[in-house]
Amino acid sequence: MSNKLVYNFGDGTADGDASMKNTLGGKGANLAEMSKLGLPVPPGFTIITDVCNAYYENKKNFPKELESQVTQALKLIEQKIGANFGDEKNPLLFSVRSGARASMPGMMDTVLNLGLNDKTVAGLAQKTGNKRFAYDSYRRFIQMYSDVVLGVDHYNFEVILDEKKEELGVTLDTDIGADDLEDLTKLFKEKVKEETGKNFPQDVNEQLWGAISAVFNSWMNDRAITYRQLNDIPAAWGTAVNVQSMVFGNMGNDCATGVAFTRNPSTGDKSFYGEYLINAQGEDVVAGIRTPQSITKKAKAEAGSDLPAMEESMPEVYQQLVEIYKKLELHYRDMQDIEFTVQNNKLWMLQTRSGKRTASAALKIAVDMVSEKLITKEEALKRIDPESLDQLLHPTLDPKAKIQVIARGLPASPGAASGAVVFDSADAEKRSQKEPVILVRSETSPEDIKGMHVSQGILTARGGMTSHAAVVARGMGTCCVSGATSLHIDNGGKFFTVGNVRVNEGDIITLNGSTGEVILGKVPTLKPNLSEDFKTIMGWADKVRRLKVRTNAETPADCMAAVEFGAEGIGLCRTEHMFFNEDRIISVREMILAEDKEGRKKALDKLLPIQEKDFAEIFKIMSGLPVTIRLLDPPLHEFLPHKKEEIEQVAKVIGIDSSFVKRRISALKEENPMLGHRGCRLGISYPEIYEMQAKAIFGAALKVAKETGKDVSLEIMIPLVVTKKELEILNAVIRKAQSELGYNKKYMIGTMIELPRAALMAGDIAKEAEFFSFGTNDLTQTTFGLSRDDSSNFLPHYQEAGIFEKDPFACLDQDGVGQLVEIATERGRKTRPDLKLGICGEHGGDPSSITFCHKIGLDYVSCSPYRVPIARLAAARAALA
Amino acid sequence: MSNKLVYNFGDGTADGDASMKNTLGGKGANLAEMSKLGLPVPPGFTIITDVCNAYYENKKNFPKELESQVTQALKLIEQKIGANFGDEKNPLLFSVRSGARASMPGMMDTVLNLGLNDKTVAGLAQKTGNKRFAYDSYRRFIQMYSDVVLGVDHYNFEVILDEKKEELGVTLDTDIGADDLEDLTKLFKEKVKEETGKNFPQDVNEQLWGAISAVFNSWMNDRAITYRQLNDIPAAWGTAVNVQSMVFGNMGNDCATGVAFTRNPSTGDKSFYGEYLINAQGEDVVAGIRTPQSITKKAKAEAGSDLPAMEESMPEVYQQLVEIYKKLELHYRDMQDIEFTVQNNKLWMLQTRSGKRTASAALKIAVDMVSEKLITKEEALKRIDPESLDQLLHPTLDPKAKIQVIARGLPASPGAASGAVVFDSADAEKRSQKEPVILVRSETSPEDIKGMHVSQGILTARGGMTSHAAVVARGMGTCCVSGATSLHIDNGGKFFTVGNVRVNEGDIITLNGSTGEVILGKVPTLKPNLSEDFKTIMGWADKVRRLKVRTNAETPADCMAAVEFGAEGIGLCRTEHMFFNEDRIISVREMILAEDKEGRKKALDKLLPIQEKDFAEIFKIMSGLPVTIRLLDPPLHEFLPHKKEEIEQVAKVIGIDSSFVKRRISALKEENPMLGHRGCRLGISYPEIYEMQAKAIFGAALKVAKETGKDVSLEIMIPLVVTKKELEILNAVIRKAQSELGYNKKYMIGTMIELPRAALMAGDIAKEAEFFSFGTNDLTQTTFGLSRDDSSNFLPHYQEAGIFEKDPFACLDQDGVGQLVEIATERGRKTRPDLKLGICGEHGGDPSSITFCHKIGLDYVSCSPYRVPIARLAAARAALA
After folding, report:
1. Which positions in chain B touch A781 (Cβ < 8 Å)?
2. Can you tell me the ipTM of this complex?
3. Regions of chain A with pLDDT less than 50
């Protein structure tokens, strides 16, 4: 750890700068940078992130050098401001805030107005000539400090406040007078004594160290841990603590507080965009308690609001703010999210950071900034999180659908979603395992983070575009409508009413996050219409990437969607998916139930023309792009019926006794079907199945080539191989079918590498395989000895306990499974230098796994159609890395 | 292929010698060697094994050089013998036999008396003055040649023979006179014409090439393929063909034929041992049609026979034979199995080879030969197939049991077995899947090989100690009683009678292969009493081997048996096996059904003293030897009841509703339990389970150390680990229990390496593990993606198709799984040079897998108690290799 634990900022100078995020946290680094830029930043200091780690490593004790460095920093601020910490006449007050390397909005604790006690409050009243303000600040401070530092729940104080209001016969906090507020501070302190057995601390230094400890402690609270897991933030980063002199937006009507974005975070439009509140503290804006006003006249008009814009109410300060935001954006070369406070008509900057934005905004901003020559194309690609594109690729509401709009709120996070209504985070977690849910809350708070994560959409009755719900939902790419004020929510009764409509828990509603509409029932959706910005970015990505991107698809609809999304072929066509259609399942069952080869062949003969037609359709859509067809893979019993009626129906159609069907079903049952009689093992046992499939493939390829005049680029893939010999035997079956059909075009036969033995024996297997496709789903299951179907019981706990950093089924385990992929790549290529290599597990659509695939030199990744653009961008970023 | 395809032998010279087994086959090499030794060997030649491969590679055509070399060889024999092939006056006759590198008794085809036709038969009659002999030889030749070469089943000729005997009113073949035999040859030839549409070949060269082809063809018959699979003989070895001039043991009473062993193949006693028949062809002895006579007077007395021994009937030839057998044993320095024929009082040696022997005979012969200074101790160890010890280690009949002996036969293969009676190979294969079976046959033939393999014991009504049944059973280590002549078998009715006892198919009988007793019903068995020879060999093995041998055991009985067999510790104590006892399963179920940690702890508190007692018992028996205890491994649902009554019982005892039990059982059900919530995953989810087990272990170790004054050598093993972190967490649970119990002795914590990821991450895992034990059962399942429980459907087919050379669950897959074991060994030792390494899968008792474990440097193998001696010997042989 460095010797310098405390960094000063403010008054046009700073010890640090924006490059020191790792040390100062995001907030601290940017406060330093703004100070250096000469912007009006209230003086303060940052305790570095290393102190957080030292604090935890040393049983929550601070390094001994810290105290003197803090004392020195305090003195410097006192000099700059001309006020003193704890001074009874001219008291200096502080805010104490967290500030990690990555933004974790609302996850950690904050204390404001620190430095007030029974004496300094009087000094503040006298100095400001505003006793009401002073005692209002003091009662807020007692409540916040007691909650955060002393562990006295804020609920205790709210009850006292409510009683006081009742006693006074008023409904708004602002209607409470100065004396009553003073009285409240006494009642609050009594409550603290009652709950903690100790007096509320009057020593301002005790207050300060209590608050610093509390902020460090909040690094390890449940919310923060969950947020870090969801966002892949290592616990070892730690948080910094920012102690900053207070400025007040709530000292009267020449005061205000606000947040703003240098461009529209929802659309990406190049227009200054924000909200403010007159006579308020900063927390009032983001907490969503009062609905805030627009900053610009333009935004006011668009929102149809009649509350004055800041541009109108504080035109000079507004001009100053405009100059500052432009300076900041130019300086940082990125859209900024800024916080400010106006105290007695003086503007203070409290924060700037890269603003969170929707995916479409990210695309627009990136493309615009390239044409503004602010950034390069490569920088533009690096600015866009591939995963975020997901929200652009999801369906929107069908405009032709008849919809019953029951309420309107703010379009807080775009997209559309239908789901069952739930009213709290726990219900959301539970119900979401069975069906999509919409979380409905008066307003969300950081405690709701888990529930928000599992919900398809979020609806709040209060709060603006920058409320907690809106910010978090946009970050997650989850559709959100905020501030739908006509909603009356009864959390106890688990229903809400809007007008005379009552919506109970479990009822289905639909949200349109792009318009703010709340709709009763489920609404049909449409594929997203991709913007020009999207296409521009994808074009840049395609020029940069080396990895090809294919898709896993077998239905014509999926194939078409994938091609539209830019897929360069099919990496995995699962033929068995075609077996389930109503017109063929009976023949499939007949084949399985047959007692001998003759019986099987009879049934397969019926399937042949159907499969051929399926393949022909796909070949036509793919129009010469490579198509990898995997031969039958799952255990046969998956196709058999389980319900009594179905069993009887099959027996009847086939003309056998239903008791035979039952016996056969039970004979085919396996203890561990994942490891059973499936994949190429079926082809070895019943070569006639693969023979039929091969004939269907070659037949279709011949027809399509003749019809379209364009050859099919055919790759036949044999699953679940563990020895070269299996491939030898089955290649012979395929070659025989090929020669019988007189197919004389080039095609490839390859195999899935999806079992550890296949990876280890890849050098041998490559003698018979012209390509490998890594089936990382099964490879993960077998390498870990972990059934995907059965792991949900304990996998979450494994992640919480830090045993698995990430879900290995979502994100390729590079340490373990990755070794096998590398081994197979190396040995396969050694045998056959032109071996084509790809990946077709779920991981083919996961950006970090794609980076790995790029690094080890695979030729392509294959993923579900809707992840194709994500994969294209991820592949480009991998190439740039 | 070499240019020399044909090797001559006989008359004191030979082109080859005993070292050329790979080229000449065992029979050919030894015929050459005997010739060189100056023994009387009928002249002949050997067509080398490479020709067999060339024949199959070239669509069953011979290399073109072969014909001229055969012709030359024939001429050489004609010169030596002074007779000519096909000569009408002085015909030379040949036998044509197979001869592979490894002995495959009776699996391939043979043709005798080749060279006879309508003209040469007359010459033979005249030359020998024995028309009856000549036509008897001819009718035998026609039958054999037609069966083997022309595909006319021998049944056809037997029917004609039976009709002729009926017509003549005689019962024995020997009662048929010369003219009637001549007539039979005509009837036989007519039958051939009828069946094949062609005349029986009169051209002796056509006969010869037909026979040579037939022998090569028989290399690929079903019996031979099965035998090769059972005995791990590669098809690529091929067979040689031996063409040898005929000598006749059936030309009169100064003729005989016999087989003998230079030492007793059943007991190993150093006494010449064999059987012969006057006036017979060799096949008569082994086919078991006539019960043969003893060679020595001593054996005759022991058998209680009144037929004259060869020592009495042919004293001079006998003396000559004694000299030869001594010379052969001294020359080969091993017990020999010899075949001879006496033609007109002249002795001819037809074969010598290392004799098959029982395991106890192998031990005795090896130990004796060491004391006779014929071989070294190391050679002695190399001579004994570890697998063969298995037959010594199996139980024998309890001498105190009351038994009802219903018949007596020859003690053809030692050991004892009870089982349900079956009467043919197919029934044996079927029924053996449900229960142990005893195969009962009049006499066995090579077609019965599959049925013999699946039977616990073999009982024949005819045939001697060297009959097919006896030889094959000894080789398999299967108990066999042969020649129980009082049995009357009704194959059609599927029963046998003996006196007035009738035994139906499915009735249980017991065989005592060491006494020849056939016993009605099931007889209790006793552990084997190991011979001094056994102990001597084991002592030598223990001095040579580097690998330690431990056992997999958890019951006191198994632990004691293992210690007696020489186990040097417990390598795997499966704690869950202790959970199934009646006195604890209820508590186990209570624990699983508990809704929370408190409920689980309550149930675990009841289990703690029981487990402690179990462990204490084991620690006492093992008396300071290392004991590796694996913590709970299987998925919890394995312990839950499935029958309605059981469910109700549990519900009642625990005091919960049975519907809850049912729900819980269904909730715990997994799709792929092998890959589910088991092993250390249970310990992570419910640390209280492992805590209880750790406390029971330390508690027991403390008690036993106090009681016996001897420390327990304790190794605690955590199963199914895939990350270091799992071990970290669970080690802490164990260390906590240790410190709570105040256990301050040395002990180790280690892990199973049983999943591919664990092997790949071994370097990391070894940071937390003091030992690794390779769980190769699960490692094989996951590396292959192959469920042991489900593979029986297709594994046999995989072996037949040559995809798997051996069952990977029986014999470690060194190519694939072995790589992971090697990787883990290397990486684990790199992290922790003193890492202790062992194997505890089934492979720990398999000789070839043990060789692998030795080679890669493991410290020990662990196997089931009864395989401990096998492992000790295998480990010694691995060290010698």
Report:
1. 675
2. 0.79
3. none
